[in-house]
UniProtKB/TrEMBL annotation:
<keyword id="KW-0732">Signal</keyword>
<dbReference type="Pfam" id="PF04945">
    <property type="entry name" value="YHS"/>
</dbReference>
<feature type="signal peptide">
    <location>
        <begin position="1"/>
        <end position="27"/>
    </location>
</feature>
<protein>
    <submittedName>
        <fullName>YHS domain-containing protein</fullName>
    </submittedName>
</protein>
<feature type="domain" description="YHS">
    <location>
        <begin position="44"/>
        <end position="89"/>
    </location>
</feature>
<dbReference type="InterPro" id="IPR006311">
    <property type="entry name" value="TAT_signal"/>
</dbReference>
<dbReference type="InterPro" id="IPR007029">
    <property type="entry name" value="YHS_dom"/>
</dbReference>
Amino acid sequence: MTPSFRHFLPLAAATALALSTASIALADEIYATNGVAINGYDAVAYFTDHKPVKGSDKFTATYKGTTFYFASAAHRDTFAGNPEHFAPQFGGYCAYGTADGHKAPTEPQAFTVVDDKLYLNYNDHVMQTWRTDVGGYIKKANANWDTVKEQPAP
Protein backbone atom coordinates (compact mmCIF):
# COMPACT_ATOMS: atom_id res chain seq x y z
CA MET A 1 0.00 0.00 0.00
CA THR A 2 1.40 3.39 -0.96
CA PRO A 3 1.05 6.33 1.43
CA SER A 4 -1.40 9.00 0.45
CA PHE A 5 -0.37 12.62 -0.13
CA ARG A 6 -2.13 13.73 3.05
CA HIS A 7 0.44 11.84 5.14
CA PHE A 8 3.14 14.15 3.82
CA LEU A 9 1.30 17.39 4.58
CA PRO A 10 2.27 17.55 8.29
CA LEU A 11 5.92 17.00 7.37
CA ALA A 12 5.75 19.69 4.67
CA ALA A 13 4.11 22.15 7.07
CA ALA A 14 6.72 21.46 9.78
CA THR A 15 9.53 21.91 7.24
CA ALA A 16 8.08 25.20 6.00
CA LEU A 17 7.72 26.48 9.57
CA ALA A 18 11.31 25.51 10.40
CA LEU A 19 12.60 27.26 7.29
CA SER A 20 10.63 30.45 7.95
CA THR A 21 11.78 30.49 11.59
CA ALA A 22 15.40 30.04 10.46
CA SER A 23 15.02 32.97 8.05
CA ILE A 24 13.68 35.22 10.79
CA ALA A 25 16.50 34.28 13.15
CA LEU A 26 19.06 34.77 10.41
CA ALA A 27 17.70 38.20 9.51
CA ASP A 28 17.94 39.30 13.16
CA GLU A 29 21.58 38.23 13.27
CA ILE A 30 22.48 41.33 11.21
CA TYR A 31 21.35 44.78 12.33
CA ALA A 32 19.43 46.34 9.46
CA THR A 33 17.15 49.27 8.83
CA ASN A 34 14.51 48.48 6.21
CA GLY A 35 16.48 45.36 5.30
CA VAL A 36 19.73 47.26 4.68
CA ALA A 37 22.84 46.83 6.85
CA ILE A 38 24.88 49.72 8.30
CA ASN A 39 22.13 52.21 7.38
CA GLY A 40 23.22 51.88 3.75
CA TYR A 41 26.90 52.63 4.34
CA ASP A 42 29.67 50.78 2.50
CA ALA A 43 31.31 48.13 4.73
CA VAL A 44 34.46 48.00 2.58
CA ALA A 45 35.01 51.77 2.77
CA TYR A 46 35.72 51.55 6.50
CA PHE A 47 38.85 49.59 5.55
CA THR A 48 39.85 51.38 2.34
CA ASP A 49 38.81 54.99 3.04
CA HIS A 50 39.01 54.75 6.86
CA LYS A 51 35.68 56.53 7.18
CA PRO A 52 31.98 55.86 6.62
CA VAL A 53 30.95 56.28 2.98
CA LYS A 54 27.33 56.13 1.89
CA GLY A 55 26.59 53.18 -0.39
CA SER A 56 24.20 53.02 -3.32
CA ASP A 57 21.33 50.69 -4.10
CA LYS A 58 23.01 50.25 -7.51
CA PHE A 59 25.79 48.19 -5.90
CA THR A 60 24.45 45.59 -3.48
CA ALA A 61 25.33 42.21 -2.03
CA THR A 62 23.38 39.95 0.29
CA TYR A 63 24.98 38.38 3.34
CA LYS A 64 23.10 36.31 5.93
CA GLY A 65 19.80 37.44 4.45
CA THR A 66 20.60 41.16 4.68
CA THR A 67 21.38 43.62 1.90
CA PHE A 68 24.60 45.65 2.02
CA TYR A 69 25.08 48.77 -0.11
CA PHE A 70 28.41 49.83 -1.63
CA ALA A 71 29.81 52.99 -3.16
CA SER A 72 31.19 51.11 -6.18
CA ALA A 73 31.07 47.81 -8.02
CA ALA A 74 34.67 47.20 -6.93
CA HIS A 75 33.71 47.50 -3.25
CA ARG A 76 30.70 45.22 -3.79
CA ASP A 77 32.90 42.61 -5.46
CA THR A 78 35.52 42.87 -2.72
CA PHE A 79 32.85 42.29 -0.09
CA ALA A 80 31.28 39.41 -2.01
CA GLY A 81 34.67 37.71 -2.17
CA ASN A 82 35.03 37.69 1.63
CA PRO A 83 31.92 38.97 3.45
CA GLU A 84 32.99 37.51 6.81
CA HIS A 85 36.01 39.82 6.77
CA PHE A 86 34.22 43.05 5.83
CA ALA A 87 30.88 42.67 7.61
CA PRO A 88 30.83 44.41 10.98
CA GLN A 89 31.44 42.26 14.02
CA PHE A 90 28.46 41.16 16.10
CA GLY A 91 26.16 41.54 13.11
CA GLY A 92 26.58 45.30 13.10
CA TYR A 93 24.93 45.62 16.49
CA CYS A 94 26.66 47.85 19.02
CA ALA A 95 29.88 46.17 20.10
CA TYR A 96 29.68 47.82 23.54
CA GLY A 97 26.07 46.66 23.93
CA THR A 98 27.10 43.12 22.98
CA ALA A 99 29.83 43.28 25.62
CA ASP A 100 27.11 44.34 28.08
CA GLY A 101 24.90 41.40 27.00
CA HIS A 102 22.28 42.98 24.75
CA LYS A 103 21.60 44.05 21.17
CA ALA A 104 21.59 47.77 20.44
CA PRO A 105 21.35 49.67 17.14
CA THR A 106 24.34 51.54 15.72
CA GLU A 107 25.24 54.71 13.87
CA PRO A 108 27.62 54.43 10.88
CA GLN A 109 29.99 57.18 12.06
CA ALA A 110 30.53 55.52 15.46
CA PHE A 111 33.07 52.91 14.38
CA THR A 112 36.46 51.47 15.18
CA VAL A 113 38.60 49.12 13.12
CA VAL A 114 40.72 46.91 15.37
CA ASP A 115 42.93 44.07 14.14
CA ASP A 116 41.34 44.42 10.69
CA LYS A 117 37.79 43.98 12.05
CA LEU A 118 34.98 46.53 11.98
CA TYR A 119 33.14 47.36 15.21
CA LEU A 120 30.14 49.69 15.30
CA ASN A 121 28.70 51.50 18.32
CA TYR A 122 25.37 52.98 19.34
CA ASN A 123 26.62 56.57 19.02
CA ASP A 124 29.75 58.69 19.42
CA HIS A 125 29.45 58.87 23.22
CA VAL A 126 29.25 55.07 23.55
CA MET A 127 32.14 54.76 21.08
CA GLN A 128 34.31 56.90 23.36
CA THR A 129 33.49 54.59 26.29
CA TRP A 130 34.19 51.55 24.08
CA ARG A 131 37.59 52.95 23.18
CA THR A 132 38.65 53.19 26.85
CA ASP A 133 39.11 49.39 26.95
CA VAL A 134 38.66 48.04 23.43
CA GLY A 135 40.46 44.77 24.16
CA GLY A 136 38.43 44.09 27.27
CA TYR A 137 35.14 44.92 25.58
CA ILE A 138 35.99 42.77 22.56
CA LYS A 139 36.73 39.85 24.88
CA LYS A 140 33.39 40.32 26.70
CA ALA A 141 31.46 40.79 23.45
CA ASN A 142 33.00 37.66 21.91
CA ALA A 143 32.01 35.69 25.01
CA ASN A 144 28.44 37.08 24.86
CA TRP A 145 27.75 36.97 21.12
CA ASP A 146 26.37 33.42 20.89
CA THR A 147 23.70 34.34 23.45
CA VAL A 148 23.14 37.93 22.29
CA LYS A 149 22.65 37.02 18.62
CA GLU A 150 19.61 34.92 19.61
CA GLN A 151 17.89 37.98 21.14
CA PRO A 152 15.25 39.78 19.10
CA ALA A 153 16.35 42.89 17.24
CA PRO A 154 15.92 46.11 19.23
